[in-house]
Amino acid sequence: SEADKGTYPHYMLKEIDDQPTVMRKLAQTYFNDDGQVTIDDELLADLQSADRLYIVAAGTSYHAGLVGERLFERLAAVPTEAHVSSEFAYNSPILSKHPFFIFLSQSGETADSREVLTEVNAKGYHSLTITNVQNSTLSREATYTMLLNAGPEIAVASTKAYTAQIAVEAIIAKALGEATQQVAAADFDLRPQLGLVANGIQALVDQKERFEAVAKDNFVDQRDAFYIGRGIDYAVSLEASLKLKEITYIHSEGVAAGELKHGPIALIESGTPVIGIITQERTASLTRSNLAETAARGSHIMTIVTKSLAKAHDDIILEDVDEMLTPLLTIIPAQLISYYTSLLKGLDVDKPRNLAKSVTVQ
Ligand code: AGP
């Protein structure tokens, strides 16, 4: 069955490797033969009448929502806010006049998100659930559903659902932006880009020994680790850090690169890994300076950089893809480093302590 890990030692590794296939599958599912992006007409009309999008999710799905926030604002020019569902439920923001809600949930069963959806329905607002599980509770309770088509995700640490969620958000943002005549959406060549992304992911998962070596040399013996970035790279830093802490039990933070000097830099000790994610031309040199500031305090710095911004001393170089799709590549090294660190520490990679795959309590 699809949920079989076959010859893989762990589901997580299989699910990391599934990602190029998932990207190609999404390019097939949501584009027609003419290469046009296609989503449900009624959903599109509802999205067009919204004056603000509220993305509600937990954990990794929330981190995909943070990327979505940027995709919807840049491609569709619609104000978008990503929220942690457990916060939204009891400390909700003042809503706009015509809100539309997007629930991101791999399992479709997360209680914190359901709590919000129940309230959204009670108020008569419309919503979309993006999920990996057909007929899941959140998909049944929302006005619309879109599927991730990522195949079963069994490992507690989410990998392919995250990249699939971002790809689906990009699909919706492009459809919405095209419907409202946004130049950015028309110029965004998403279908061929998803092909480039698939190739770029493949190039990374083909270098497993390399990430295993990084895990062994720079992570296994560490107490703390930091991922830093700006903008969309900061959003990925949060997810990279969650991946590490979940399965390696190393204390890890994703930090907005410019915020380091306002506090977190105090935690840097000799050898502390600080990984800089650098994919945005506008902020690349700023993040590089922030990395250097930690190196001056003894950190071990590493960089994850897109080819066009790479310099001779960079560590992990990624294929160039559209600036808005870089999270689909930058997260891969972090997933693999976390996997190998957990493995080398002898931990239960697929079932880390204290965590459940879907959290059905508030
Ligand atoms: C991801 O690695 C976590 N295990 C967790 O944060 C998860 O993303 C969260 O519980 C949300 O789950 P969902 O996507 O099924 O709603």
Automatic annotation (TrEMBL):
Official protein name in the record: Glutamine--fructose-6-phosphate aminotransferase [isomerizing]
Domain SIS span(s) in chain numbering: 43-182, 215-352
Keyword Transferase in record: yes
Keywords noted in UniProt: Aminotransferase, Cytoplasm, Glutamine amidotransferase, Repeat, Transferase
Enzyme class: transferase
Principal subcellular localisation of the protein: cytoplasm
Positions of the catalytic residues: K357 (for fru-6p isomerization activity)
GO cellular component terms, A-Z: cytosol
E.C. code: 2.6.1.16
GO BP, one annotated term: protein N-linked glycosylation
Entire-sequence positions represented here: 247 to 608 of 608
GO terms of molecular function: carbohydrate derivative binding; glutamine-fructose-6-phosphate transaminase (isomerizing) activity
Chain's role: Catalyzes the first step in hexosamine metabolism, converting fructose-6P into glucosamine-6P using glutamine as a nitrogen source.
Localization of this protein: Cytoplasm
